[in-house]
Structures are given as structure tokens and as C-alpha cells.
Design brief:
386 residues; alpha/beta; Aspartate Aminotransferase, domain 2; Aspartate Aminotransferase, domain 1; five-stranded parallel sheet; four-stranded mixed sheet; binds pyridoxal-5'-phosphate; DegT/StrS_aminotransferase; transaminase activity; PyrdxlP-dep_Trfase_major; Aminotransferase DegT
Length: 386
Amino acid sequence: MQEIPFVLAKTPAASSLVDKFQEVEFSGIYSNYGPKNTQFEAALQSRLFGSQGCCLTVCNATIGLMTAMKQAARKRPRTSPSPRYALMPAFTFAAAAHAALWAGFTPLFCDIDAGSWGACPQSERRLIAKYGSDIDLIVPYATFGNNIDLDHYERLHRETGAGIVVDAAASLGAIDERGRGFGTGFRHPVVYSMHATKTFGVGEGGVIYCADPDTIATLRIMGNFGFGEPRCATMPGLNSKMTEMTAVVALECLKTINDVSDKREMLADAYRRSLISEFKLQSRTGRRTAYQFMPLLLPKWVSRDAVRASLSAQGIGTGAYFSPHLMQQPYFRAQCEADDLTVTDDVGARILSLPLWTDMTTSIVERVVTALHQCVLSNPADQRAA
Ligand SMILES: *Cc1c(COP(=O)(O)O)cnc(C)c1O
């Protein structure tokens, strides 16, 4: 095992939850939006979303994105023979493009902003001008738990009529500029992951939030086989339900999410203070970012493979999220379309993700930074000038 792993998942100790697990066992209710799940959804709505809107648990964020996208498609019945496009940034995780394809959309990738690494508004505009009403859906990604501008997407929805589904997979724990949990009050589905590697990690799980209760009510039915009437499908469906045992873990995570997110932001601040200016960091928005890891851009004159190998040899794990980006993955390249992706190509080629986990200390951050500085500054000067 690496001395300093890239990710180190931390879920609540099962031993401390034995009583709660037994409550599930004795109730005989293991799923189907049972009492623990209901309790978790209500607690989440009040603790993270200021008691506004509604929450629906799902078994993971990918399935949550699929159902939310499918619902968006149903709202706009199609007559034109051209594909229905889902506009999304190329710099995101494969799950968003897979979900769009499963829901019947053709992913259409826009470029990203060089500072925030979120969807670039000019690139979105270019694609909207070119594809017009064939764009049925817009899927922004709250990049690495950052607080993107949701008002911008409400405006795009009003202008184009396209549905909006937000991929906020890493965002449970993020706080927007008004001091609310990221997503609060948004009238379109916002999908969060509770995968073990996220800030709010239960193992497998997810949440769909929406300020509109009808949207959540419909998604709840779709997630239970489309049963709008007892045992009778009235709409498209699948099984997206989360287990009661997971809800027990999630309730426990909710108690600590604020402290965990603060701690992780403190570690990110330690990185920001220590890293030399040769590294480019993501511009932050909102009051708190939910950090899954610490992303940065390497200087152009440095080989990422060499840096990763050198850090690995020193027992330090790293990642390169998201490289390859979506348009560089063969399955997507073969069937998706894209705008010019100059910034995505550049960011994807230089991105490096450093360890950032809840039990890390600032002295571990210092060790990582020192090792990184050594390997970057040991590059010959002629290479740096090139
Ligand atoms: C983690 C992640 C997902 C998938 O979440 P799961 O709960 O693992 O399905 C989707 N999109 C992004 C951007 C992610 O980081």
C-alpha cells in the first residue's frame, strides 16, 4: 500500500451503527423508500437545503442522472428525425455521457473555461447557435465540487426551452455564495453522488434534489419501475432505490458533513498556500468547495507521467481526473459531437489530482508539495524555457 494514498475513503464505523442496522433488520423493511430513507431525505432537505425543495435518494448518481435525463426527454416529445442532443462539457466523468446515451440523447460536448474548468459559456452559445432546438437538454457539471452559476442555466432554459439536469456528483458539502448548500432552490434536477470517494461517502448512493416537488414525485415513481399506480407502470421506469442499510450510513454521514467539508477545505487551503505559482489552480466560486481531491495544472514543460511515476516511487498516489476527457474515449468519440475543445485538450493534458482525504494532516500536504516541487524544479532549465 502507498504511504500516502490518492484517495482514502472514510465511511462511519459500522460498529457504532449496530443498533441502527438492527432496527432495519427488526422492521423487516430493507428498501422501497422505507423509514430510514424517509428520515434521511427529510434530514438532508433541512440540513443542506434550508428546508427548501425535495430530495430523493438513488442507488448511485449515474442511475440518478439517467432517470432525470429520461424525465427531461419525456417533457419534450420529439417529432424531428435529427438526434436529440445533450449539451455537456467534455471535461467530466464518463457517467454523464453514458447516462445521456441511455436516456436517448446524443452527447454534444462544449469546451471549458480556462479558470473554473466548468462549461465555457461562449462554447455553449456557439453550439446553441449551431444546433438550435435539436439541443433538448443541457447538463452542466459542478466541476470538482465547485459552485457553478445556476442562474445562467435557468436563463438558458428560458431562452432555449432545453431541459436542465445538473451533474453535481461531487458537490454534497459545497456552499454557494449565499451560504446555502449548492443547488438550493434550483427548479431542475441536481444529482449528487454519495460514492465512497466523494466528500459525502456512503459506499454506493446518490441524491436528486429539486426545488419543484412534482419533479421529485415523478422521479420517485420512475425509480420504482414507473409504478404510478400499484404494480402498474404508467411511465418509463427502472429501479433506482437505495437500501435502508445505506440510509442508516447516510444519516450518520450527514452529522459530520459540515466538519468533514471544512476539514477538506482547510487541507485545500494548505495546498494553495504552499504550491508555487508554476502550478495553476482552479478558480473557486461560492463559499465552500467540496473537495474530492486537489486538482492542479502542471506547467507545460513538465511530463505528467514522469511526475506521477516519481511521486509514486516516493509512496504518493495521484490521479489525473479527467484525462482522457470524454471526446478522447473511443466509445464516446464514435457517436458524440463536439465544439472546438482547445481548452479541454490543454487542461486534460496537464491536470494532476493530488491526495486530499479527511484524515490527512497539513504535514502530509507539506510532504506531497515538497515532493512535487522537487520533481518539477529538477527539470532542466532549457526544458522549462521551451
Ligand atoms: C462520481 C461521479 C459520477 C458518478 O457517481 P456514482 O454515484 O458513482 O454513479 C458522475 N459524474 C461525476 C462528475 C462524478 O464525479
